[in-house]
Amino acid sequence: MAFTRATGKHRRPGRAARTTRNIAGMAAATGVVVSIASPALAANEDSAATTDAGLTRALADTGDRVADNIVAQADAQEEAAEVAAARTQVEDAAVKSAEAAKKKAQEERRKAAAEAAKKKAAKARASRSDARTTLSPSGFVAPIADSYVSTGYKASSGLWSSGSHTGIDFHAASGTAVHAVGAGTVVEAGWGGAYGNNIVLKMEDGTYTQYGHLSSIGVSVGQKVSANQQIALSGNTGNTTGPHLHFEARTGPDYGSDIDPIAYLRSHGVSV
């Protein structure tokens, strides 16, 4: 059965009505509210066309402004992100720098504490050595406390230019306190060639004593010293195969005037 449309019903909207609905839909999609005056039903086609053109331009301008706002917002967000990233980099660098400075300060404190402890221990050893050293009845002492002779007088070896040992060696680790065996005056204090750092004292009885291979010297030429006074620290300087104290007794200040140092010390009441 064929159907026919009843007269006056289901009529297609006119152009103006359609245009109004289209504009309203576009405005809703873009978020723009446009106030449109409904044209008179009797408006002619030219009037409707003019209205369409004006509304189209208005929507185009509105769309351009919306697009510009979106671009500007995106640019601002990108710039903010770049600033935040740069700030994060600066903060990270500052944290790393602070951590490095903290570690360096800790290491320096550790080294300083270790050095202080080392000096304190050396001072304590020297103090104990002084306390253990006892003066003989004649006022003489051994140059190293609580030690022993490791190489005797006149021992033969190619290590010495004369072919034999001109003194005696006392066993001593580097840094051990060295004492004047008796009262006297310093006549030499410094580098002594094969003897390394050495000290020569003129004793009050007119004899001389020498102390060689020292790691450090604590007196100067012309200075008067007393028996048992610490004058140096033992070491490993000069012609030597290891740390020890080389001790000589002499009739004069120079090499070649040596006498038996063990007999010398014993003659002054020192047991070696």
Would you kindly provide a written description of the structure presented here, covering whatever features stand out?
InterPro entries: Cell_wall_metabolism_enzyme (IPR050570), Dup_hybrid_motif (IPR011055), M23ase_b-sheet_dom (IPR016047). This is M23 family metallopeptidase. Residues 164-258 form the M23ase beta-sheet core domain. Residues 1-42 form the signal peptide. Keywords: Signal. The protein has 272 residues and is α+β, with helices and mostly antiparallel strands. Helices cover 41% and strands 19% of the residues. The protein has three helices and ten strands. The chain has helices spanning 15-30, 45-132, 261-267; strands at residues 149-151, 168-171, 177-179, 184-191, 197-203, 208-217, 224-225, 230-234, 244-250, 258-259. Strands 1, 2, 3, 4, 5, 6, 7, 8, 9 and 10 form a ten-stranded antiparallel sheet that branches. A hairpin with a 5-residue loop joins strand 4 (184-191) and strand 5. Helix 1 (15-30) runs parallel beside helix 2 (45-132). The chain is rod-shaped. The termini are far apart.
Task: Give the SSE map.
Blueprint: H1 15-30, H2 45-132, E1 149-151, E2 168-171, E3 177-179, E4 184-191, E5 197-203, E6 208-217, E7 224-225, E8 230-234, E9 244-250, E10 258-259, H3 261-267
Antiparallel strand pairs: 1-2, 2-9, 3-8, 4-5, 4-7, 5-6, 6-8, 6-9, 9-10
Helix pairs in contact: 1-2
Organism: Streptomyces olivaceiscleroticus
Pfam family, one: Peptidase_M23
InterPro entries: Cell_wall_metabolism_enzyme (IPR050570), Dup_hybrid_motif (IPR011055), M23ase_b-sheet_dom (IPR016047)
